[in-house]
Task: structure prediction
Amino acid sequence: MESNQYLSMFIDESKEHLQALNDNLLELENSPSDLGIVQNIFRSAHTLKGMAATMGFEDLANLTHEMENVLDLVRNNKLSMNENIFDMLFKSLDALDAMVNDIVEGGSGKLDVQHIVAGLKAIVSGDSAAPASSAAKQASSAPILSGGLDQYQLSIVEQSLQSGFQVFVIRVRLREDCVLKAARAYMVFDALERNGEIAKSEPSVQDIEQEKFDREFTVYYITKLDGQSVEHMIQDISEIDSVTLQQIHADALAQMRDRTSYAKDSQPGSDAKREAARTASGANGQAGAQGGSHAKQQSGSRTIRVDIERLDTLMNLFSELLIDRVRLEQLASELQKQELTETVEHMSRVSSDLQNIVLKLRMMPVETVFNRFPRMVRDLAKSLNKKVELIVTGAETELDRTVIDEIGDPLVHLLRNALDHGLEDTPGRIAAGKPETGNLYLRAYQSGNHVFIEIEDDGRGINRDKVLNKAIERGIVKSEDADRLSDHDVFQLLFASGFSTAEVVSDISGRGVGLDVVRSKIASLGGAVSVESVLGQGTKFTVQLPLTLSIITAMLIRLGSEKYAIPISSIVETTLITKEDIRNVQGMSMIRFRDNIIPLVNLAQVLEVPDHLLDDSGEMNVVIVHKGEKLAALLTDEFIGQQEIVLKTLGDYLNRLFAISGATILGDGQVALILDTNALIK
Amino acid sequence: MGAELKLVVFSLGNEEYGVEVDKVQTIERMMPLTRVPKTPVFVKGVINLRGVVVPVIDLRERFGLTAGEYTDNTRIIIVRQQSIEVGMIVDSANDVVDVDEDQIEAPPEVVGGIRAKYLRGIAKLEDRLLVLFNLQEVLNKDEIIQLEQLGE
Result:
């Protein structure tokens, strides 16, 4: 087998399994007696082991093997979960994670796991039953006829019996150390098919080919051979642990026929079994998360992995189409031809549907970021000796992949902050008359063109005065301004750069470690972060993120002969002013807007537009833009209109430009620059 | 015999220059430029090159030569040096020639008003002299930033 070819697949799948292990273990910690979860964990560990062994990552395989031994005892009720076992399993997961990451970075996945392996072994040997014997016992005691045959298969079997064939149900169990399970299974099938016919296999042949089975499979086999020779035939294949045969006679078949006839749409056996497992685990109070993960596994077969570069190419091609569309729309409106207009209108509709799909292709659920948080919160809470429950909602909310890639670290930062400083310790909570366990909410939801992520705790809240005092001390706020600041303004100071250092922060409100970093990171994604807090009741951080970074709605404006685009997200409104509205305050032009006096920026002058003449005789167009709470009015020559534009970079040669965040291509093929209005607001 | 080099030959004023073919993406006729505010004077703006926005510099002005009129012969040579893609406005782009590495000599201090650090060498062909650019230096980003700071 060419290993390299499978490496990326191995890495992807290992990560998925590790995540599943993590999730399930956390779940199990909440309901330690739920054997359904243990079963899931076992399965993930087992698959991981098989894959690792196939790829030759021995340490990985060894460690998972030891984990499996422990889990096997647990699922057979020979061992009950306790804190020690949980910690050991979590430690093993961390080690596995480290190994997989090493492999990702081109390493060999080697790691010294002696102490963990020893720890796991100690757990196993602490119990009287050896894992091997329990496995064997399970194999023999389980009922062999677990699934039925459907109507068609039954009739085949029936006919075979009538024409003098023997029918057997054969259960084959592969050895535990068998590496290429699918290959072994294939050899069994091959041997059987040389001397007869397989009426049904369970799991299905496809599942077996894809190694989607544990270590055993069952086949209904029609042959002229007698039972013993069939058994020998299979035993001759290496790495077979056991073979169990049961002959089916006509009367047994009749019974089966009865059973299938009332199970109306004769479920294939494996599905029925899975179905049963699901309802069982659902009954155990795991309905939510458990059902979710099952659904995910099933929908897994309906998705394909696509190289992200292809999606980027698709996006680029589509954006060119979008430019042509705008061009066509212009032409159609100039030519005023009925047929052309209709066709262009239709094309526009189709292309906006297409646009939605293309953008959606790049969307990923925030779950991919969120799913590492439960574990992180658990560990952190443990090390801080606090009781915390993390409540995650809206994990299915989708965001552009580019944003997903970047948003993890800021969120970790905010969560850590909430755990470390926001939530009180247990005595503190009791003293405050709150339940011992603190609640930490992580919510995601979409609203309009934005996705909001909230991190809320029911901890001690932010002390306004302390923040203010610190800000004054640090020279961020003048003491004479302090009284005029609203609570919101004060809390926003937490994000000011230079506001905090670690020791100061845990000392005062317990907020602000590197929050300026969080803010700038989120701002670089085109988002914003804000904070609300009630002293003694809790704190809520809200992160607002744009849905996508590739296509935005913008207002096109004209300055002299040049056109610029202003993102709609930064526009408050457009309005008309006359010369009389402009006041001169300390050498700066200001206008009154609503109840504020805001600066008026002569955009053409700032951008040094060469052929611009200011005509202030009549009404002048201004765009009111905002940067957070601050407003400014931008003087423009003309509003051209609102348009969907495709963001383009100006390339590496021109970076660090003043007040320009990128470019777009207009319908006429001209390039228009996109204004970064934040740079224009002081 | 050294390795063969294929060069795109273009002219600025009276001199002929060469740039390696493999650095050249395409050669375009003059097209509408969108001015980018607050950039050095030699940055003429950006163009739409089949859906990609590419900055364009005037090579004459880049080297402090007198700016010329753009004519029908004026060309934009799109070059790529690592991650940087830039269009260079030249008086004309003439042809492609093969040059032997052995024919390339170290550049003198100044050629046609261009300092040696921007030059890779001079190729002496039978009937003509070709000045080879050191694209790395010509497209040096740090220099833009320095120039910008000088301008402010």
Q: What stands out?
A: Chain A touches chain B through 30 residues (CB under 8 Å). The longest helix of chain A spans residues 269-300. Chain A has five domains: 3-134, 142-270, 308-362, 380-546, 551-680.
